[in-house]
């Protein structure tokens, strides 16, 4: 958990450095540029209902992910590789939802939907950072499930604390590299005047759609690197679960079969929802008629999925349920005393 704290400090430090860099870039190259996030402004009657819905979602996201981190921290039974990865997954979900949702909520209740160039590219950078981190973390968790089911006797040896820390550090490091590359090529595109971004978030396609120069290179770099990440991730996940499936079908014990399936069900559900959403978002042709679909999909992976992950892992996981129940009973006992 100390490693988690250090990573949080590094992320905040990176934010400060990037903020300074963007101020210099804005002053030198993009003076006078103003973005206006259209969001869901074409549906004025839905502004208040959407605000209430997203506020509830964000509240559940914050409470759910902070609760998951707390439960994993205080429960010795959950001090295992699987929950070490899950604590970082909760941290990432909390962060990238917090990068997007507060601005979304603000734009639903105020008329001024402007966002500075600095704030927009900062949001873009951190969305890329946390989304890529989640892709790699979910991939690492697939390998963890493979070792747990197929090599249970060697599980604690193979998934050592050192290897788990290296996998998490590699997730953050690769996400940082990808985000810097995405940002660098986005900043090669020029912008001018007041531009309307047809989204509630500074997503790449919506930003380059209002550029004053050819964004082809930036689009191709994003497509190639994003496709590379998805292909590598899906290969590892697919291979892991094929081997898991073969191993499970050979089990003669129904109890062992149930335990093996239960350890994988939550992760497989989470990765299917997340990866399916990301793939569908980047497979949608960037045409005017598809912008509503892009917005809805963006809502799903930036607002809904961070809320669903802690629910998936708590509702379908016996160990988490027991840890929560034990924590509640302990608190009640302490109050009675």
Please, could you describe this protein's structure?
With 337 residues, this protein is mainly α. It has helices at residues 2-29, 47-74, 81-109, 117-150, 155-158, 161-186, 204-208, 216-249, 254-283, 291-315, 318-336; strands at 34-37, 114-116, 194-197. The chain has one domain: Rhopdopsin 7-helix transmembrane proteins. A three-stranded mixed beta sheet has the order 2-1-3. α3 (81-109) packs across α10 (291-315), α4 runs parallel beside α8 (216-249) and α4 runs antiparallel to α9 (254-283). It is globular and about 65 Å long. The model has no long low-confidence stretch (mean pLDDT 83).
State the CATH topology. Rhopdopsin 7-helix transmembrane proteins
How many helices? 11
How many domains is the backbone divided into? 1
Backbone CA Rg: 21 Å
Please write the CATH class name: Mainly Alpha
Largest sheet: 3 strands, mixed
- Taken as a percent bin, the fraction of beta residues is under 5%
CATH superfamily: Rhodopsin 7-helix transmembrane proteins
Low-confidence stretches: none
CATH architecture type: Up-down Bundle
């Amino acid at each position: 958990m100390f490693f988690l704290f250090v990573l949080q400090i590094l992320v905040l430090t990176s934010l400060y450095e990037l903020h300074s860099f963007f101020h210099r870039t804005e002053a030198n190259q993009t003076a006078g540029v103003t973005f206006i996030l259209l969001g869901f402004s074409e549906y004025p009657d839905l502004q208040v209902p959407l605000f209430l819905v997203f506020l509830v979602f964000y509240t559940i996201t914050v409470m759910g992910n902070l609760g998951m981190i707390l439960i994993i921290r205080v429960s010795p039974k959950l001090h295992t590789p699987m929950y070490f990865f899950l604590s970082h997954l909760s941290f990432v979900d909390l962060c990238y939802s917090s990068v997007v949702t507060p601005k979304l909520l603000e734009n639903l209740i105020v008329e001024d939907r402007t966002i500075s160039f600095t704030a927009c590219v900062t949001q873009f950078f951190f969305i890329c950072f946390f989304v890529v981190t989640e892709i790699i973390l979910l991939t690492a968790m697939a390998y963890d499930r493979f070792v747990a089911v197929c090599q249970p006797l060697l599980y604690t040896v193979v998934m050592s604390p050192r290897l788990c820390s290296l996998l998490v550090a590699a997730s953050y490091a690769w996400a940082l590299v990808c985000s810097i590359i995405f940002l660098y090529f986005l900043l090669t595109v020029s912008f001018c005047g007041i531009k309307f971004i047809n989204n509630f978030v500074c997503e790449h396609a919506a930003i380059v759609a209002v550029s004053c120069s050819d964004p082809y290179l930036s689009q191709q770099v994003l497509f190639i690197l994003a496709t590379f990440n998805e292909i590598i991730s899906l290969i590892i996940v697919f291979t892991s679960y094929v081997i898991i499936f073969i191993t499970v079908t050979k089990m003669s014990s129904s109890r062992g079969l149930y335990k093996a399936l239960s350890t994988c069900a939550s992760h497989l559900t989470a990765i299917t929802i997340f990866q399916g959403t990301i793939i569908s978002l980047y497979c949608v042709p960037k045409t005017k008629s598809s912008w509503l679909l892009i917005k809805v999909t963006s809502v799903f992976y930036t607002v809904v999925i961070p809320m669903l992950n802690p629910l998936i892992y708590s509702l379908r996981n016996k160990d988490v349920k027991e840890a929560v129940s034990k924590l509640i009973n302990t608190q009640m006992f302490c109050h009675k005393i």
